[in-house]
Amino acid sequence: MAKKFLYFIAICIVLFLVGRIGYEMFQDELAELAFVPSSEFTPTEPMEANAYQDPGMWYSRPGIGVNDPARWQPAYANDRGMLPTPADTGTPDFAVFFVHPTSYLSRENWNAPIGEAEAERIARLYVRGMASPFNAASEIWAPRYRQATMGSFLTDAPEAAQAIDAAYADVVEAYGYFLSSIDDDTPIVLAGHSQGSLHLLRLLREEIKDAPAADRLVGAYVIGWPISVEHDVPSLGFAACATPAQTGCILSWSSFAEPADPSRVIETYSNSIGFDGEKRGTSQILCTNPLTGTYGGAADADANLGTLVPDDMMSTGELVQGAVPARCDDRGLLLIGDPPELGSYVLPGNNYHVYDVPLFWANTQADVNRRVLAWDAAR
């Protein structure tokens, strides 16, 4: 499943380095050459006991204060000002565990060293743009972890799987500390994107579905990683969210503008093995419509409460209402109509992977608040 799914990001960078003809002829080879480490895999040492007690191991956690990137709150581009606060909406306390996507592009290591400057800078931007929709939470925890490098998703070499396993081991340690740090009756939200979602899916299967914490799961926002409705969801232990107020369920989407060319994503997905051990093939991909909070369906742009439009550096942005519609197609991809102007990180095939969450920032915030209220009402 992992091979080539994230190749789009790599190819975007390669496009700046090679001519279009060479790209068309040798795109996979060039991506591997640019990003796959040539060194042997060096096993990462397990984290020291209680390593995640150190506040420095978290991008976001209680006590960080104004420097916490997940606590950022964008304003609307028009005169609407800010969104309602948790106090305004009556949202009860809840805790979020957020795992950021791949921010390490180097060929020097299979796993990112903690503290690598450029990977840390990019990861903070991801937390700011993708964890901030959950900022109504009483607690947001977003760990640093020794993520697998981009090249791990561009090869079938055994080192790639080892790197992904090593990254997951850190996520498990961070989750354990998160769980031990929050009150026993606090509802939990899981959220992530891309590589972060991959780790959360494994966490759901191996650590949560048969554990007491399963009863506290409001929702798992595993965005930007294709999930088979037939071959993956039954193994996760939680259903796909079918209604806007359903709890204990899974949400996921992968965004494409039109005309969309998802051929390589579909090819890789089709040839991958699901969590049930069977090939995913032509099975439908889980598509939550983020404008409605339901499984599948379509909604017009006027249902979009606010798209986060970033500046050129992706370090800040503002919310624009009604920017894009959303429609789940028969494959399970989320189509957003004509390509919106969000910046220079749109990937080949009109793939808006990098913008999966910002496209629906305000609706995601409203969605999680609604589900927390529903969970609290059902107690």
Outline the structure in words.
The chain is of the alpha/beta class and 379 residues long. It is 29% helix and 14% strand. The chain has 9 helices and 15 strands. Helix 1 (7-15) packs across helix 2 and helix 5 (158-181) packs across helix 6. Residues 3-26 have low confidence and may be disordered.
The share of residues in extended strands comes to: 5-15%
Domains (count) = 1
The main pleated sheet reads as:
7 strands, mixed
Count every beta strand, where a strand is a DSSP E run of 2 or more residues: 15
Range of helix content = 25-40%
How far apart, in Å, are the first and last alpha carbons?
Answer: 38 Å
- The main sheet orders its strands as 1-3-2-4-5-7-6
Count of DSSP helices?
9
Order of helices and strands: HHEHEHEHEHEHEEEHEEEEEEEH
